[in-house]
Amino acid sequence: MSKRRATVAVRRAVLVVVAICCCALAGCFEWTEDQNGNLKSVGLPGLPVWQAKKPPPPQGLTDMALTPDQASKVSGPILVVPPDQQNQLTRYRYYETGQNNCQQDLAKLQAQRGGSNSGGQAPYCTETPVLPPSKGTAFVF
Questions:
Q1: Between 124 and 22, whose confidence is greater?
Q2: Torsion angle defined by CA atoms of residues 105, 109, 110 and 114, in that order, rounded to the nearest 10 degrees
Q3: Residue 130 main-chain phi, psi, to 5 deg
Q4: In this predicted structure, what is the pLDDT of residue 77?
Q5: Contact, 46 vs 119, CB < 8 A?
Q6: What are the angstrom distances between the C-alpha of 134 and each of 4, 68, 114?
Q7: pLDDT in tens, 32-61
Q8: Residue 79: what are its φ and ψ, rounded to 5°?
Q9: How many Å from the N-terminal Cα to the C-terminal Cα in the chain?
């Protein structure tokens, strides 16, 4: 009987160790999806194990939550400000026709950013903005 008790004790110890390891690894799995729910990358936070090869298609202004009437008044490049330490969301600045100051606003942001050393992706002007990917995390046994 002592051999049986030892076996049961070893099994319980293994289960406890596995449970502790699982708790330590919780939150170590991350994935990103595009706006349509298509998987873009899978892996550890900051270190994707797999990434989709196909880049996301450019989005139209109506896909960016603008009404058709608002979209008809917008022209020229759009200022895209990616997330940083202070703001966790990507911000978009649209300009009305004839009032596009994207390059000037970009120069101001870069001057401010140069002094703050905020890190992350730099803001940019673009004609074809892409929605940022959504992120998710999970724990897998």
A1: 124
A2: 160
A3: -120, 135
A4: 87
A5: no
A6: 51, 25, 28
A7: 877 667 778 887 777 777 787 766 555 666
A8: -85, 125
A9: 33
How many whole angstroms separate alpha carbon 119 and alpha carbon 43?
22
**Could you report the per-residue pLDDT of 11-37, keeping only the tens digit for each?**
888 888 887 776 666 667 777 877 667
Angle at Cα 79 formed by Cα 78 and Cα 85, nearest 5°?
150
Q: How far apart (Å, rounded) are the C-alpha atoms in residues 30 and 43? A: 5
This prediction's pTM = 0.50
Q: Judging by beta carbons within 10 Å of its beta carbon (0-12, 13-18, 19+), is residue 1 exposed, middle or buried?
A: exposed
Question: Which ranges of the chain does DSSP label H, i.e. alpha helix?
Answer: 2-25, 68-73, 102-116
Angle, alpha carbons 87-88-94 (nearest 5°): 70
Cα–Cα distance measured from residue 118 to residue 122, given in angstroms and rounded to the nearest whole number: 9
Task: Find residue 42's DSSP bridge partners.
Answer: 31, 50
Q: What are phi and psi of 104, to 5 degrees?
A: -65, -45
Higher pLDDT, residue 135 or 93:
93
